[in-house]
Amino acid sequence: MYPFKFHRPATVRQAAGLLGRLEDAKLLAGGHTLLPVMKQRLASPAHLVDLSRIEGLAGIEAKGRSLAVGAMTTHAEVADSGVVRAAIPALADLAGQIGDPAVRHRGTLGGSLANNDPTADYPAACLALDATIVTSKRRIKADDFFQGLFQTALEPDEIIVRVLFPIPKKAAYVKFRNQASRYALVGVFVARRPSEVRVAVTGAGTDGVFRMAAFEQALKARFAPKSLDGLTVPAEGLSSDIHASADYRAHLIGVLARRVVEAANKAV
User: Fold this and answer.
1) What is the pLDDT of residues 147-178, one digit of tens each?
2) What is the DSSP letter of 47?
3) Strands 47-50, 25-28: pairing kind
4) Domain spanning 5-50, CATH architecture
5) Helical axes 246-267 vs 89-96, angle rounded to 10°
6) What is the pTM of this model?
7) DSSP string spanning 204-221?
């Protein structure tokens, strides 16, 4: 590790001000991504702005037909929340599959979304559920928020405050995980909403999380695994690495999509 200055603001406004004023500053939420890369000297921010003492950034609340989850809410809190399980059980199931207990008790929703790791789970939930990311400046629809590998629509001095998840009629998440890291080799989240079906895939795309339009149209006509019969996933644009080839990931998307629709139907 190397020298840096540590800041602990009391409000979101103070934190945003530090980000705008300080050169080369990074936000610290759970720290599961930032601290390891700092130890490996792959990142060397001059300032760390800690969000852990800011009131109001954590918490879960059902608001009408939406579920509001604070940015500093941990994965374990989402997984164990009775409010989440009553509103969107698939979101609680997803959170319970992230990493191990140590990761789930430190990692946060906002930190995961801001980092936008291409193998992370929450981006798929946000896209499939048509979530809105509320920041210190504005509201950003999930379709506009994720902009490529580790890239988001966040401005340099912008902080995620909470995420609003519309409550779907049906939803489920299934992933095929790397046994060492527990990241998704492929993860598929499906949500049936009053006017549409949304299918989001994580872990597979060379450009990060994405939606499957052909699957969505087929499932909108009939929400059943058989509706996906005959549909194939092209390997072009999918990741290929030591863990899985693009062809294998394409096959997994089709298999998991059928499983996740079956799971969503059984969950009701």
Assistant:
1) 999 999 999 999 999 999 999 999 999 999 98
2) E
3) parallel
4) 2-Layer Sandwich (3.30)
5) 130
6) 0.95
7) SBTTS-EE-HHHHHHHHH
Q: How far apart are CA 202 and CA 127, in angstroms?
A: 10
Tokens for 96? Answer: 């319970």
Write down the CATH number for the domain with range 60-267.
3.30.465.10
Helices 122-129, 89-96: inter-axial angle, 10-degree rounding: 170
Q: What strand order describes the sheet that includes 170-177?
A: 170-177, 184-192, 197-202, 210-211
- For the chain, what is the radius of gyration of the CA atoms? 18
- Give the residue extent of every domain in the chain: 5-50, 60-267
Q: Which of 42, 45, 41 is nearest to 28 (CA)?
A: 45
Span 205-246, pLDDT tens digits: 999 999 999 999 999 999 999 999 999 999 999 999 999 999
Overall residue count recorded for the chain in this entry: 268
Query: Number of C-alpha atoms within 13 angstroms, CB side, residue 199?
Result: 24
Rounded Cα distance, 5 and 13, in Å = 19
**How many other C-beta atoms can be found within 10 angstroms of the C-beta atom of residue 40?**
8
**Continuous H helices in the chain:** 12-21, 34-39, 75-80, 82-87, 89-96, 101-106, 109-115, 122-129, 142-145, 213-221, 246-267
CA dihedral 142, 53, 96, 166 (to 10 degrees): -30
Neighbouring CB atoms inside 10 A of 70's CB total 22
